[in-house]
Here is the input.
Amino acid sequence: MSKEYKTLMTEIRLPYELAYGPVWTRFFEGMAEKKIFGTKCTKCGRILVPARSFCPRCFIDTDEWVEVAQTGTLTAWSYVNYRYYGMPTEPPFISALLRLDGTDVDFLHLIGGFDVSDFEKTRKMVKNGMRLKAVWSDDRKAHIMDLKYFKPA
Amino acid sequence: MSKKVAIVSVAQSAGPASKDNFYDQAYRVTRECLDKVGMTRDDLGTVVSASSDIFHGGISCANAYYWETTGAFLKNASRQDGESLFAFMYGAMRIMTGQYDNCLLLALCKGSENPENDTCTLMFGDPFYHRNLGLTETTSAAFQMQAYMEKYGVTKEQCAKVAVKNLGNALRNPYAHRRGKYTVADILNSAPAAAPLTDLQIAPKSEGFVAMLLASEKKAKKLTDKPVWFKGYGSSLDTYFLGDRDLLKTQLRTAAAQAYKMAGIKDPKKEIDVAEVTEPYAFQELLWCEELGFCKPGGAGKMIDKGTTEISGALPVNPSGGVLANNPYVSRGLQRLAEGFLQIRGEAGEHQVDKKVKTALAHGTHGFAGQCHAVAIIGV
Here is the structure.
């Protein structure tokens, strides 16, 4: 940023320490074990993923843990081809919502494992409804990116 | 409604970068709004502001910094964080209690000083899950657009026509930030972003200080011979987890239904004369028009093809250029309402619509892919 009038360049860095809480602790520890955990609402029967401590719809505790499938179906996607602060990987990449088999909500993650350098080629290949399978990182840290991406199955 | 509330005055700043500082700009817009109806600071009843720290120069509890600029010093005041159309309802309610005969609303955002919009909206995401996957307002809108086009067969050309229309309308709006005569090809061939969005289908980061004075019926009649009456309001919000939501069935339906019921509107596409909607992404104007009941789900592509929403059309949408032309984040909803006020009073200048405006609709949204929505109806 440079403007023709007098400006002040300023930046703030603030450290915070946030509790994961028991449910997200278990969910992210599952990532390190190559497992995707959801929780089931005993009232509506929906399986929510990532795991939640309560069902927002029924507003009751979800006390049943479920290890969900590592395969699913694509429901929405975007070919991201620009740089921005906080991008999860170098562009171009594909950000996506997918419905893991047996679950009742969409899971946010990335699609990869093939050449995405050309948008037109990628667009011919990636379609809503396509089948996907989880690919794990070898170096896992109980983090959402322990799951590298979902590749076409 | 037991007590009537009117909008009696509005003032706004322009969208491009200004060399004035935040504090002075906020004061000037407030002062202009009061001066238009001959109000002094002493007469001011109560104040509701709308701003958001993440969009405010890194100043925390930012309202503490700017209270003098709104005239709130030694008075009652409160702040809405996030979408400013919510602040309108809080202000109206304060008058309806009978405690105050007027209320100043001030929405504040100086986008030119902020990091990129995507950087700010990335911070909407929790740092455990959504933020680590790079979710922003833009990527979530791209999912919504992709799903929308695929479900209804609305084309990318139809989505681009929204940007052509709004950036074209903005040529007539002196406050707009981005404007121009573009073709559908220009829009589609602009820089890549999160596909299917391209750069010209994404709102800029703008400045926007919007002041609005509300008054009780009695006070309004003393202040102006052209009060614009508050007729209806609704708001609703959806779950935070993006994957829990149906991106094509938004809470705008609920918000609109509430507002129409309160205003006694049965057929919005006939009874609304002009609409100003918050469309930070071009296709969202189409989706929001459907959710507002201006046409059937999936029908907005054909509606824009027919020119219905043009400035000279049967139901003009965003004659000001909308948010694609001017995107002062937090202020954008109240700016839509200010534009509706100007249209009803016949004071919109070169972007005044051709038809007589009795009833206007303003819409505001905030969050990923329209997590929350507010709709206000005003009229003569």
Remarks:
- The longest helix of chain B spans residues 137-152.
- Chain B is about 35% helix and 20% strand.
- Chain B touches chain A at residues 17, 19, 57-58, 113, 115-116, 118-119, 122, 127-136, 138-139, 142-144, 146-147, 150, 191-197, 239, 241-244, 247 (CB under 8 Å).
- Residues 207 and 310 of chain B are 25 Å apart (CA to CA).
